[in-house]
Amino acid sequence: MFTQFKNIDTAFRHIKTFSIFLILANVSCMCFCIYKSYDIVNQSQNRIHILYNGKVLEALASDKKSNLEVELRDHIKTFHQFFFTLSPDDKAIQANVSKALYLADESAKKQFDNLRESGYYNNLISANISQEIEVDSTKLDINQYPYTFTCYATQKLVRSTSTVIRKLVTQGKVRDIKAQTDNNPHGFLLQNWEILINENEPLKQ
Q1: Structural domain boundaries, residue 34
Q2: Which residues of 71-87 are buried (b: 16+ CB within 10 A; e: fewer)?
Q3: Where is average pLDDT lowest: 20-29, 85-94, 186-195, 196-205?
Q4: Is residue 205 one of the residues assigned to a domain?
């Protein structure tokens, strides 16, 4: 009689243990399925499709932080190219500088006003000088915000009779304005921008 009760009690404990194990396994399986579902949804949301020349191309979307240094360098480079790539035409100069001013604060406008008042742009126009710029390197410090930078570039002033090479070094800070527009696709703004060096390269012997 007692042996039978012991067998029933043992069987009940086994069933109870098995039931708990089965419940835990089901919960673990459900959690894993939910996790994978969210992961798949996130991956699909990060994939975008672009229609190009009648063809659908797949691309991966990423946030700004994952590519911060590249975004900052391109913003700085784009600003300098707009600001310093000039043709001997007043309207062309205004158009390029206007694009540059969307990428920086009033410090860039002050530099433009100083150059204009000194007759810099008038000299380019009267002498038919085309000015080109090539950004050589950009030193960035992204460990502090706003991000500080120093830009090293080479200017080429092309006349009909000669070409002058100038060394250009500028510095400033970059602020994230949290908004991207057609005029400012990276959503950054240069501030406290100043020209440190803008002088002719020494002649090579």
Answers
A1: 2-49+52-59
A2: bbbbbbbbbbbbbbbbb
A3: 196-205
A4: no
Same domain, 39 and 99: no
Q: Which residue has the tokens 């002719």?
A: 200
Q: What is the CATH number of the domain that holds 76?
A: 3.10.450.230
Whether residue 158 is found in the same domain as residue 130: yes
For the chain, strand residue ranges (E) read 47-52, 55-60, 130-141, 147-158, 163-176, 188-200
- Percent helix, strand, coil in the chain, to 5, is 45, 30, 20
Lowest mean pLDDT: which of 4-18, 121-135, 181-195? 4-18
Which tokens belong to 95?
Answer: 């158009």
Helix axes 106-117, 68-84, angle to 10 degrees: 20
Q: What is the pLDDT of residues 104-139, one digit of tens each?
A: 999 999 999 999 999 999 999 999 999 999 999 999
Domain count, the chain: 2
What is residue 85's DSSP assignment? -
pTM of the predicted model over 0.90: no
SS3 155: strand
CB atoms within 10 A of CB 134: 14
End-to-end Cα, the chain, rounded Å:
115
